[in-house]
């Protein structure tokens, strides 16, 4: 999508050691974890924009926000990225992305994996849209969800997709790693990669709880609190 | 319903995406005891009793979706008007800004002033809406309200003044020190509903005193009483400061800043206090209407309930209770049973049920006096219509008018129809600024143009029914445009020697894409083109815009800069430079990669889920980009952008695809470049048309 002269690396490359979209295997699940209001959506959309820039088709599913708001999110995050990396012809590139993105929103109660499957089949059969990666924002993660999640995983695998999901940590929980670990236990096996957004003082760090380089908890990446963009990771580079 | 206009507040909440507008609105409705009601009433799954604030959030949508929600605080009546927010320039936003008197600008304490805050702020500036700022999310790590206050000054040019300081920040954010009363405020209880006032903690006292001085100094600019008190070292009362702050706020010369965390239930009650103390009541703002009987001369409306009534229908809502029309009365009073006139259509209607919307239910009311907001049932009108008492002919909406995107040739069937048609057209163009009519230079046909096929159909139908004018109409034509996509230079000499005096002029410069329709910039130095000929150059360029060189569509979005040229003492003239400009334009234009743009419509289709695949397929076939689908139980909403050229006759098709069960709305969204293959088709067709018309 970008003109020649740019090299794209994965925004989470420094954490996971993998610089390409292959950060998740086929059928793989990645999690973006944080407490409410810390910036899961913004990070998720950064990953989605990276995929779009890599010419992948992105299906964005949201269980919180209406289509319009999700659309605005993309615009905002993209604008920030484009100005940070001084991408010329910003608007045009954004316009070009739109046909490669599909937003689907559900009410939390109304969502089910069979429904998603039905919708997606509809889209693919008519050649309207065929995703490569799915981004899911706002799916609740409690005990009752384990089965649907496994179904989702199977679905993603069957269609040779991969998925990134946001996971909200309970606000009462202390943000220490053990507690989070405890919350994750029930679903941890489903995920190949787990990224935690963790505010510490004035900084917001990203840590790979799973799927990271061995030293990644120590090194960490940080987020710019203003734009919620990943700092110090020049994932778009000019040659 | 009590009617004390000084205690009415019509406010909007504007925010950057995700800074907490929804959460804040929810908390406001909670503290004003509006949301509680909904759970008591519905008792949804017994959540009512145990619901915590997170779950409350899930309830959003139903609770605060209305265009205007009413609540009460400290004996004040507050209408919260939904400002469609975040979006760029749309008529909907403009309309909602028009009906509010004041606003809360919500900012995130970490993110601060972001790009959308800038857009929102500009809109408020345009409508001169006084505002107070609420710095939300003070509990987040990285919270830095001081920085945000500074950004308000530097990025938005607000004279922002804190009226509070935080007690702790980030995870330790516990409350605020109020600099007006010099007290500390805490928010106890499960949902922060218990408001506790204490002495200022010792360690903050010094800072509070210092900040209070700054506040008083900033406020004193707006009050002689306060200035005198300072000079004479008299006691400064809270009410003195409030009066001064209020006056600064109303004139938009000062922006009071309040701190809090909606999510953690902190600081919302003082914000509401500030709304009542510092934001305007309907009396404080001046509203203007245009008198249609007097050449649209502006008239000032007064919020006097005894004068003839003037009201604006600012939003239509198809709700669970049927069609609701939200209305703000600016002058006079609107009561049940009144006869009122829709200024646009000239039609008289009788006011049936009147209601006021609360978060959870609606309340039947008898009348809506000036300054108030309410809703009407079962009134047929368009959003943006003005209603008046019979006899008046005022309109409130001569706002932004988008250019027509579609046109149609019409012809009267006989001479009687001809007369009636022109009467009708005359009337329609007055009523509706987006409807235009003119006679084509080329064909002599009468052309009507507007915002969509349906828009024009409605008027043709009205000509028949109301004016007895039988008209035939041609094929609708899309309003294509031409523009360029890159910068190109020109250097053109116009030279002609015909017998006696000749013509000479040289113009050099460049042409480039621009946001505006047309910009002309003269950078010629040292009189290379004598100043007297510059207007002729500009005129020459302008004359080229009506019919673009590529396909004879109007040219928009270009900037022309001239920076050099030459003249001849005898042979140069206005004529010569106009001709030179034409040559220069053609030379530059052809090198600047010209393209065709077409109008793109935002299409929103609502269909039973069983047909959603079919409907998407039909939009997709029409070169549509489907942005997404919103699942709402049995119904599904599909949002797409589709070129207008592909949407002709879509309503019939949609009906037959879905057994009449789906609906769609369509409005102009933007202009976009026509894909190459379609452009080629257009060229081919234009060439054929040309041949055809030459044969005739
Ligand atoms: N930490 C924190 N999070 C908040 C606060 N207010 C809102 N949020 C969170 O920010 C996100 C966006 O809030 P929302 O009210 O939907 O924002 P909107 O887009 O402006 O309507 C949600 O996850 C909220 O829970 C706050 O005061 N503090
Ligand atoms: Mg969110």
What is the name of the CATH architecture of chain A?
A: 3-Layer(aba) Sandwich
- For the record, the count of structural domains of chain B works out to 5
- The CATH superfamily of the largest domain in chain B is known as P-loop containing nucleotide triphosphate hydrolases
Specify the CATH class of the largest domain in chain B: Alpha Beta
The radius of gyration of chain B is 30 Å
Tell me how many strands of chain A there are: 10
What this model shows, in words?
- The complex is a heterodimer of chains A (239) and B (696).
- Chain A contains eight helices and ten strands.
- Chain A is α/β, with parallel strands linked by helices and 239 residues long.
- In chain A, the strands form two sheets. Chain A has an eight-stranded mixed beta sheet, sandwiched between helices. In chain A, strands 1-10 form a two-stranded antiparallel ribbon.
- In chain A, strand 5, helix 6 and strand 6 form a beta-alpha-beta unit.
- Chain A is globular and about 45 Å long.
- In chain B, strands 18-17-23-14-15-22-19-20 form an eight-stranded antiparallel beta sheet, covered by helices on one side. A seven-stranded mixed beta sheet of chain B has the order 2-3-1-4-5-11-6, with helices on both faces.
- Chain B is 30% helix and 32% strand.
- Chain B is of the alpha+beta class and 696 residues long.
- Classes of the chains: A alpha/beta (239), B alpha+beta (696).
- The interface between A and B is large, with 50 and 37 residues.
- Strand 4 of chain A pairs parallel with strand 36 of chain B.
- Bound molecules: guanosine-5'-diphosphate and magnesium ion.
- Guanosine-5'-diphosphate binds next to helix 1 of chain B.
